[in-house]
Amino acid sequence: MSIRLLVYRCRVLTPLALAVDFGGTKVEAALVDSDGRLVPDSRHRRPTGRTASVADLESSVGDVVRAAASALPEGAEIVGVGIGCAGPIDRRRGLVSPLNVPDWRDYPLRDFIASVVGAGEGGLGLDIPVTLEMDGVAITMAEHWVGAAQGVDNVMGMVISTGIGGGLIVDGRVITGPTGNAGHIGHVEVGDIVGEDTFGNASALEAMASGPHTVAWARTQGFAGTTGEELAAAYAAGDPIARDAIARTGQAVGRAIASATALLDLELVAIGGGFSHSTPDLFDRMREVIDHHYFPFVRKVRIVPSALSSEGPLIGAAALIHRATLLPA
Amino acid sequence: MSIRLLVYRCRVLTPLALAVDFGGTKVEAALVDSDGRLVPDSRHRRPTGRTASVADLESSVGDVVRAAASALPEGAEIVGVGIGCAGPIDRRRGLVSPLNVPDWRDYPLRDFIASVVGAGEGGLGLDIPVTLEMDGVAITMAEHWVGAAQGVDNVMGMVISTGIGGGLIVDGRVITGPTGNAGHIGHVEVGDIVGEDTFGNASALEAMASGPHTVAWARTQGFAGTTGEELAAAYAAGDPIARDAIARTGQAVGRAIASATALLDLELVAIGGGFSHSTPDLFDRMREVIDHHYFPFVRKVRIVPSALSSEGPLIGAAALIHRATLLPA
């Protein structure tokens, strides 16, 4: 190809990332442009889950990747695949061991997806980079790119849902850690508030403040519901147990944020995930802890809701390609 | 000066940093070469302390800076001043508020030292950069440069002494945080083990595991001594209360290291400070916590004693000049 043709081609083809988000209940894929927008009709979803076999999981992942790729519009090209996956992971080797998917331990997800899109037999014939990071890292990059953390150099992204996860941007750069597991804020200890056991650690934030653990604590106090949605409804109706449960969880999250800020001098924490939407008061309970901290540099940290829709994890996975310069070499 | 002369000069003058370490009990200064070695007879010390006035403190700082500078050997030049100071600090504005020096709140230490060495009236006439960072940041840079963390890209330096402080190197770069206060590991919370109150936070690591707090806890159990040295002696003699106190403190430090590693995927923690020398068993108690952690990426972190002598804080302050490329821009 002549230089003239090459220049022409670079100017007209819209670069798209093929974004993959793999979690404990579902896997999704979509095409995402360099402004963080999903290509219409390119988003596809399949179930995963604790009981899925390796063959089931590979079938689901392969299906969504191929379905997303087939939505490629005319005049566009796929320039890379970004994968956000539930942790722990091994970023150097591209292996994943999602806690809620017991059949995958050191599973080579990056290589599997590379084979689906690649030039080998049965592949899509694309010669493009495939990047794997933890989902909390991806979603933090999405907040920084098009969400609540735009223009902020020292950020923790958090998801409060079935579990509690996160990711870090420090001094404008993404912190993955050498193995890819930096950002496990759910496994930072919190003092004083004794919770239920998670992986043997009753003091881990996740063991106190995830959706299911908050509901479980409320049930020990007499709450009759079984879901986060029911707890949120009870809170809205003024139920005193729900009020105590939200206060306790907000305080626990606030204390973990205080610890992370003491360690990293954070400027902003952006929080999403289903349980974070229970009530805006949850954020007020977190902020009370911060507002009463003894260090001014801890009090400065802002805590805000995520500005991302349910597309956030996919936008974050796409950021691994479109914003690759923020990642470690 | 002609280019030829300039080249000649650059080749023969040995570049030295003027290193300053300011703490709650003393201030020290020395000249340090680009291999991290102190110039003989250049190290000077003056007292600081809780009762010192601003004039006393400025007199002490000025004295050690001038005394160190006057030790400049023939054939050498001072290329910069590096200051490590007890936190909190404000790195952008060069202000310090050391917890144990109540008369200094937002005190402009960087500008004061710049005036001592600078071209103005009464100054030494040097036109050189003056860099201020927290002492924990400096000592972590010293471990990474010539100590126990050489060649490791993801490191936490810790000091266990009257208080507990630290600093971070992540992906080979020093993390200062936007205000300069990243590394406050003593103010990360630890679950389950309830300690005495520090700044209103009984769950902060420092409130459980600093030298004075460990002794205070032992005294609640019947220990008759009052110093860390006495506790170490009692431990060596097999005293059961001293044994419990060391176990409790080691466990608390181990749990804080586990939290920091969950958040930052650390590879190595290097620990110095007077109380860390109480007994090597203290390190074994920390390692037991890590060895039993549920995440392999947490279990990988190594915990080692500092490889620095009492010169460590000065070498770290010098690293702010000689290793300035590791700092944020």
From TrEMBL, chains A, B:
Residues 1-19 form the signal peptide. The keyword Phosphoprotein does not apply. PROSITE patterns: ROK. InterPro entries: ATPase_NBD, ROK, ROK_cs. Keywords: Signal. CDD domains: ASKHA_ATPase_ROK. Pfam families: ROK (PF00480). The keyword Aminoacyl-tRNA synthetase does not apply. Belongs to the ROK (NagC/XylR) family. This is ROK family protein. It comes from Leifsonia williamsii.
